[in-house]
Structures are given as C-alpha cells and as structure tokens.
C-alpha cells in the first residue's frame, strides 16, 4: 500500500544553539515507510560524518521514525523543510515548512 501524505511537524523559529526536533509520520503505507528529509529541496544526508557538505551540521535523521533532530541549530539550518515517506509501493511528500533560526 502506497504511503499517505505524511504529517510533518517543523518548529517555526528556533534560537541559535538550541536543539530542534522535526517529525514526519504516516501510517497507511504497507510495508512500513522509511523517511527522508529535505532542506530547500536538497536531500539531507542521513550520515553527516561521511558527507563533507554536512560535516558542520549537528543533526541526526532516523529513517525509521521520521525524526530529524538538530542538537544545536545555527543560521545555516534556516530553510524550508519537507519529508518524503517511501515504501515498495511508492512515496508521498509533505508540504514544505519554513524553520527560522
């Protein structure tokens, strides 16, 4: 079963240096969906250590729960965030939401 449009929760504004949690979830898809996050339409790498472009970012992505956690946000984390739920039957994307740091 193809995933439904996931419900995304993105904080509107986060002070510099604070943590932020972004959530993405849908429960219609079968098999269970995995989740990937995008900032300004660019995919966020789930592995920040191996990707040089994301080494200054302090976030972790959990593809199973759809949670994106910033441990300490900085100005560069400002942007429009969206999430895609994917399974064998297809994918669905939530609306982009702005997060300001």
Automatic annotation (TrEMBL):
Location in the cell reads: Cell junction, Tight junction; Cell membrane
Q: Give UniProt keywords alphabetically.
A: Cell junction, Cell membrane, Disulfide bond, Immunoglobulin domain, Membrane, Signal, Tight junction, Transmembrane, Transmembrane helix
SUPFAM superfamilies associated with the record = Immunoglobulin
**An annotated Gene Ontology molecular function:** protein heterodimerization activity
Tagged with keyword Cell wall biogenesis/degradation: no
Fetch the PROSITE patterns from UniProt. Answer: IG_LIKE (PS50835)
Q: InterPro entries under this entry?
A: Ig-like_dom, Ig-like_dom_sf, Ig-like_fold, Ig_sub, Ig_sub2, JAM-C
In its UniProt record, which GO terms are filed under biological process? cell migration
What membrane topology was assigned to this protein in its record?
A: Single-pass type I membrane protein
* Tree of life domain: Eukaryota
Q: Which Gene3D superfamilies match?
A: Immunoglobulins
Q: What is this protein called?
A: JAM3 protein
Q: Which organism is it from?
A: Pedionomus torquatus (Plains-wanderer)
């Amino acid at each position: 079963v193809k995933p439904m449009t996931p419900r995304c929760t993105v904080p509107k504004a986060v002070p510099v240096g604070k943590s932020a949690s972004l959530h993405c979830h849908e429960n219609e898809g079968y098999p269970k969906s995995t989740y990937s996050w995008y900032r300004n339409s660019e995919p966020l790498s789930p592995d920040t250590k191996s990707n040089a472009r994301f080494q200054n970012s302090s976030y972790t992505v959990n593809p199973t729960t759809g949670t994106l956690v910033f441990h300490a946000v900085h100005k560069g984390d400002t942007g429009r965030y969206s999430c895609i739920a994917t399974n064998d039957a297809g994918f669905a994307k939530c609306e982009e939401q702005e997060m300001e740091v």
